[in-house]
Amino acid sequence: NWTATVVEYQNVAFERPSDEWARLTVHNGKTHMVGVSGVKRQTGVMFFQIFAKPNTGTATPKGRADTFVGLFENKTISGVSYETASMDEHKDEEWYWVTIKIPFTMDMIE
Residue 95 pLDDT > 90, yes or no? Predict the structure, then answer.
């Protein structure tokens, strides 16, 4: 249930809940000129992490990860072209989490 999932965004005050939550982070990469047309291409990676308490199973976090990937992978949305996603699983004493990485590019006209 995405509407009930608490999401942490960059540079926004956030109080971490005691159960499931998610984090969205965008890392911008290089910007370079494309040809002689005055178009700049920005690259980057969008990270989405879904956290759950350890030893509660993986179905919910992985299901939400699959849903998130389906929203962006290999799609262009508002001029941002998202590429193929990758996922990693992690666990520590406090959390189990899935990290989704989706590279992107977008062109900007100068």
Answer: yes
Summarised one tens digit per residue, pLDDT across range 15-44 is 999 889 999 999 999 988 887 777 899 999
Q: What CA–CA distance (Å, rounded) separates 69 from 65?
A: 6
- DSSP β-ladder status, 76-77 and 21-34: unpaired
Closest CA to 61 of 53, 50, 47: 50
B/e letters for 73-101, b = 16+ CB within 10 Å, e = fewer, are eeeeeeeeebbebebeeeeeeebbbbbbb
Three-state secondary structure call for residue 38: coil
CA distance 18 to 2: 17
- For residue 81, how far is the Cα from the chain centroid? 14
Tokens at 51, concatenated: 């956290």
Whether the model pTM is above 0.70? yes
Q: What are phi and psi for residue 69, nearest 5 degrees?
A: -60, -45
